[in-house]
Design goal:
heterodimer; A: mainly alpha; two-stranded antiparallel ribbon; 3% strand; globular; B: mainly alpha; 14 helices
Chain lengths: 294, 342
């Protein structure tokens, strides 16, 4: 039972990271119908910026954490305005291709600037753990979970209770109608990219202490985020977070209790799950079933 | 009825392919052999991306499946290497169909999302079953020996094998994209709703296109393994899948002849063109051109520039140069509607 609860907490903390990146994907997808393949690399790149701000990773500073969020927000909005916006009139395929180009460029730039070697990234939380009824709960896991959930909550409050948030939801739901109502949709898209980049930066900085900082560190995590987003229903922000948590717990449970599933099989399992969801419940757990008129 | 490509262009290509080994060094011939196998891979991926409008960021892994099929058959079962080339293609094609059935049932980004996971999942599986795949170390293949009692250098023979395969697969690709099935693919690309309304099963068309493209990549992968004489999990990284996609866009999505240029790009960007381009910049501004990651930056930037400046790739540029100048053209000239990356 102790092992079970320990696996559960680790799973929830992993899942929070998948969920936050999945939420970032859903944010952009809902607004533009474009899957941002550079989402993971944007997170990785901003984590490198945080690492540089923290004196090449010697100690964790909260000011650097928040400065990185600001830089990520600005950078995301800038990328949308400079790279993606000129392709607004082009097809979705072209826009997706542009995000793939961004993925390649950011990955290459990170290796170029900071070398592709493994770097140590400090954690804001102590490595010790609490013992509750014989279960060791790592403070790092709880901290990661808390930070990610706080970000998700702030984002939800923003979308639910501010005028700007309402405008963004309107822009995502029906861009043309929103524009006619005086909403400047193009700037809102930049804002959406900014939020997604900042959210990615949070997941990057939270995951880097355990997986270490390399230019490729987010590739696998992006795939888990894809699987989480599809599991949750690709259009549902709540679904993305729940899907992420569920996937994190599932992967850790499988690794713990099903012996043939070694760490090498985590990704194939995630891919398999993605395909199974598409076969059985394509709208995901929380998605609407889209009815197309033909 | 549409022909299987332009016969004059075929003749020119055939002459060029036959003449090339006599004109360039052995090492260049070996490189040109790789151009042939990349051509096969790009033709396949283009059937999926350029003609059916579905992005795949994982076709490098289908090359990997072909390569491992060849290696395991040759090393562990003693099959003659040339015979394994179609087998590699068929195995990759079947995996592609099995993968495509769930992933292509829905419009939207699901297929691209799922394909992104293939290269990393493939590497994970290779490492998980080392007694079958050789694990991290991989496996070594024997050098390809010339057949028919012909005594020539291995690189020339490899060139011959690659281009014979490529020159079979090129007309085959023309055959696939013409006629009823070709029209079905293009209609899925242009409007899934209109395609469905006309009685086309979009899922079946996408799955078939996915399987065909996986088959092409599997064949290319078999050739690749034979050419480099080893395979290991690092041979088919996610970068390769992305590079194939860059090759498609650069050559011109939806143009089969454009893939020749794409294949030249894929082979030479890594070793010659990329560094040369960087050297050009380094004269202006001092940068380290051998730094890790610099190559990636180059082809990412090239991809972006092509998307902005020439969305229909090299093929579109050639079409632009060869068609009648604008002032001689009527407004409703069909050659004006350049599909590019639709």
């Amino acid at each position: 039972m102790q092992t079970f609860f320990q696996t559960l907490t680790t799973g929830l903390s992993d899942g929070a990271i998948f969920g936050s990146l999945a939420l970032a994907l859903v944010l952009i997808y809902k607004a533009t119908e474009v899957i941002n393949f550079a989402q993971g690399e944007m997170a990785m790149f901003t984590t490198y910026i945080a690492w540089a701000l923290m004196g090449h990773g010697s100690t964790f500073h909260w000011w650097a954490f928040f400065a990185t969020l600001g830089i990520a927000f600005g950078g995301g909005a800038l990328l949308q305005q400079t790279v993606i916006r000129p392709l607004e009139r082009a097809s979705v395929l072209t826009a997706v291709m542009a995000t793939i180009a961004l993925l390649v460029i950011l990955n290459g730039l990170a290796a170029w600037i900071w070398s592709p070697q493994l770097q140590f990234f400090p954690s804001p939380f102590p490595t010790s753990s609490w013992v509750v009824g014989g279960v060791h709960i790592s403070k790092q896991d709880v901290g990661t979970f808390g930070v990610v959930m706080a970000c998700v909550l702030v984002l939800w409050l923003f979308f639910r209770f501010t005028k700007l948030g309402l405008a963004m939801r309107a822009g995502a739901l029906n861009p043309d109608a929103a524009r006619l109502m005086g909403v400047r949709t193009s700037w809102l898209l930049a804002l959406g990219w900014g939020f997604a980049a900042a959210l990615g930066a949070v997941s990057g900085m939270m995951v880097a202490p355990t997986v270490f900082l390399t230019p490729n560190m987010m590739q696998a995590i992006l795939i888990y985020a894809f699987a989480a987003a599809v599991l949750g229903g690709l259009e549902s922000p709540v679904g993305a977070v729940v899907g992420g948590l569920g996937l994190g717990v599932l992967l850790n449970m499988l690794g713990q209790y099903v012996h043939p599933v070694t760490s090498e099989l985590r990704l194939p399992v995630a891919l398999g799950l993605l395909l199974v969801v598409l076969l059985i419940r394509p709208a995901g757990l929380f998605g609407r079933v889209v009815v197309r008129r033909v | 009825m549409r022909r299987l490509g332009n016969p004059i262009a075929f003749a020119v290509l055939l002459v060029a392919v036959v003449a090339a080994p006599f004109l360039v060094s052995n090492y260049r011939t070996y490189q040109l052999a790789f151009v042939g196998l990349y051509l096969v891979a790009l033709l396949g991926l283009n059937i999926l991306t350029g003609f059916t409008g579905q992005i795949s960021i994982g076709h490098g892994a289908f090359m990997g499946i072909g390569a491992y099929t060849t290696t395991i058959l040759v090393v562990d079962h003693g099959v003659r290497d040339l015979w394994t080339i179609p087998v590699g293609g068929v195995v990759a094609g079947l995996v592609g169909i099995a993968f495509g059935i769930p992933a292509t049932r829905f419009a939207g980004p699901y297929l691209a999302l799922a394909t992104f996971a293939i290269p990393l999942a493939f590497i994970g599986l290779l490492k998980r079953f080392p007694h079958f795949t050789g694990g991290n170390v991989g496996k070594n293949l024997p050098q390809l020996r010339p057949e028919f009692g012909w005594s020539t250098s291995p690189s020339i023979w490899f060139y011959v094998v690659c281009w014979v395969v490529a020159l079979v697969m090129l007309p085959l690709a023309f055959f696939v994209v013409r006629g009823r099935f070709g029209r079905a693919m293009r209609s899925v690309r242009d409007s899934e709703i209109a395609a469905t309304a006309n009685g086309i099963s979009t899922a079946a068309v996408k799955t078939a296109a996915f399987g065909i493209s996986a088959f092409y990549c599997g064949v290319a992968g078999s050739l690749y393994a034979i050419g480099i004489t080893y395979v290991n999990p690092d041979t088919f990284p996610i970068d390769l899948s992305i590079l194939l996609l860059v090759g498609i866009v650069l050559g011109g999505a939806g143009s089969l002849w454009g893939m020749l240029f794409g294949a030249l790009f894929v082979e030479f960007i890594r070793i010659s063109w990329g560094p040369a381009l960087l050297n050009l910049f380094s004269r202006v501004h001092h940068i380290d051109t051998h730094a890790p990651g610099s190559g990636l930056v180059v082809y990412g930037v090239v991809l972006l520039l092509v998307l902005y400046a020439a969305p229909s790739g090299a093929a579109g540029l050639v079409r632009g140069v060869t068609r009648r100048p604008a002032f001689l053209r009527r407004k409703d000239d069909p050659s004006l509607s350049d599909p590019g990356l639709v």
